[in-house]
Amino acid sequence: MAAYIPEQGDIIMMNFSPQASHEQGGRRPHAAAACLVLYGDENARLNVPENFPVDELSYSLSVDSITVAAEDSVLRNHSSLVLGYIDFKQMNLLTSSQMDFAVQLPEGFTDMDDIEVVTVSFEADDLASTNLSLKNFQLVNVPEGFTVTVEESALRVYVLGKKSIISGIAAGDFVVKVDLSDMRTRAGKYEMPVSIYAPTKGYVWAVGEYSVTVDAKAS
C-alpha cells in the first residue's frame, strides 16, 4: 500500500498508539488514540501561498483526539488519516475564524467516541486587511515558440495578514504567478488562474480566486 504524504494545510489524524492486550491471531479489534493536528509541509502546492509560515498559525481544536478501533491488520496499514484540508484562498478570518470538518473514517474503522465533527478555530485578533493593485506578474512554463504577455496592467486583490505586516505592506511585495502549463499551444487570448504570494513577508495571503488574460503570439 502506497504511503500517504500529507500536504501543507492538511488536517490529519496521526500518531496511532495501539492499546493491545491479547493478539488472538491478529483479528481482535484494538483501540488507538488518534491525535488531531495541523500538518505543515513546505512542498504543498495550492492550499497555502508559497513561503507561508505554517508554524506561526495559532489555532485550537474542539477535540484534541479521537479514539478509533479496528483490527490489527487495518491499524498496521494506516499511520495517519486525513480529516480534510484548508484552502487559504477561501479563508477570510476576519469574517469567519472557524472551520468544521466531518469525521469520515475509512472502511474498517469505528469511532469509539462517536464524534461527527471537529471544529478548527483560528486566532484572528492580530489580523488586518487591505486592498492592493498588484503589477508584478511572473509568467512560468511559457510554451516553447510563443511570446506571452498579460493584458491587465494591474490586478486588484484583497489581502489579509498580521497587523504588523499589513501596516507596511506594498504592492511590490507580492508576486502574481501565472502558470502557463495548461495553456493551449496556439496563438490567442486565454484566461489563466494565478497564485499570489509575498516571498519575504511571511504571515500574509490574498483571499479569493483570481485570474488574468494572457495574449499568446507565435515567436
In a few lines, what is going on in this structure?
By secondary structure, the protein is mainly beta. 4% of the residues lie in helices and 46% in strands. Strands 5-1-2-4-7 form a 5-stranded antiparallel β-sheet. A 5-stranded mixed β-sheet has the order 10-13-14-16-11, with no helix packed on it. Strands 3-8-6 form a 3-stranded antiparallel β-sheet, with no helix packed on it.
Mean pLDDT: 80
Number of helices: 2
Sheet/helix structural class: mainly beta
Provide the β-strand percentage band.
over 45%
**Helical amount:** under 10%
Oligomer state equals single chain
Low-confidence stretches: 8-16, 18-28, 39-46
Rg measurement, Å: 22 Å
Inertia-based shape:
flat
| SS elements, strand count | 16
Strand order of the largest sheet: 5-1-2-4-7
Characterize the main sheet.
5 strands, antiparallel
Distance between the termini: 47 Å
Give the helices and strands as they follow along the chain. EEEEHEEEEEEEEHEEEE
